[in-house]
Design goal:
Blueprint (H helix, E strand, L loop, with lengths): L5 E6 L1 H18 L5 E7 L3 H9 L5 E11 L5 E9 L9 E9 L3 H12 L4 E9 L12 E5 L5 E2 L15 E4 L1 H8 L1
Parallel strand pairs: 2-3, 2-5, 5-6, 6-7
Antiparallel strand pairs: 1-9, 3-4, 8-9
Helix pairs in contact: 1-2
The protein binds inosinic acid (IMP) and magnesium ion (MG).
Length: about 180
């Protein structure tokens, strides 16, 4: 179904499993016995978070937030909107933000600052992917699955124009797909 739109597979299902279990190991060690909120950033982190939480052996609850620095297309708008706030009061909570990918860094730096200002006990960031070449704002991420090159990727929750989230692996989208929508 997607094969015509995907240039190549960047991260296979098997490799994703390895990355996720590596992240779980580190978080389990660092947060041993600690009551923690997994703050899942909608929508792209949905699938990653579902796999990550099942590998965690610590007392977690989950919460959701939706923020975006992107419109429908593949280019950043440079603006952040908090569309949905978390239900919990962050005061005195240990929070791990679960994000699909760090691109410019704007979304996460704003979220971290927001939660710290609201009195969270600690804020950590767990992102499956990071594109260091695209960083515009420095953001400290404690847990990163892997760095990737500056390519637009989809699948495993990541979208282009809300599509491709159900692809089970992470693939590079053919530029023709997003170029045709930009015009
Ligand atoms: P940032 O604020 O620029 O770091 O944007 C992060 C958000 O942009 C992610 O949560 C994604 O929703 C989106 N994003 C960045 N790069 C990609 C990509 O290659 N594919 C799909 N979404 C992306
Ligand atoms: Mg997105």
């Amino acid at each position: 179904m997607f094969e015509n739109d995907i240039e190549y597979t960047l991260i296979s299902e098997e490799k994703i499993k390895e990355l996720v279990s590596g992240l779980c190991e580190r978080i389990n060690r660092d947060f041993f016995g600690k009551e923690t909120i997994l703050l899942i950033i909608l929508k792209g982190s949905l699938i990653f978070a579902a796999d990550l939480m099942r590998g965690l052996d610590i007392p977690i609850t989950i919460d959701f937030m939706q923020a975006s620095s992107y419109g429908m297309g593949s280019k950043t708008s440079g603006e952040i909107k908090i569309k949905k706030d978390m239900d919990n009061d962050p005061v005195d909570k240990h929070i791990i933000i679960v994000e699909d990918i760090i691109d410019s860094g704007r979304t996460l730096s704003l979220l971290r600052e927001n939660l710290e200002n609201r009195g969270a006990a600690s804020v950590s960031i767990c992102a499956l992917l990071s594109k260091p070449d695209r960083r515009e704002v420095e953001v400290r991420a404690e847990y990163v699955g892997t760095n990737i090159p500056d390519e637009f990727v989809v699948g495993y929750g990541l979208d282009f124009a809300e599509r491709y989230r159900n692809l089970p692996y992470i693939g590079v989208l053919k530029p023709i797909v997003y170029k045709s929508e930009d015009e």
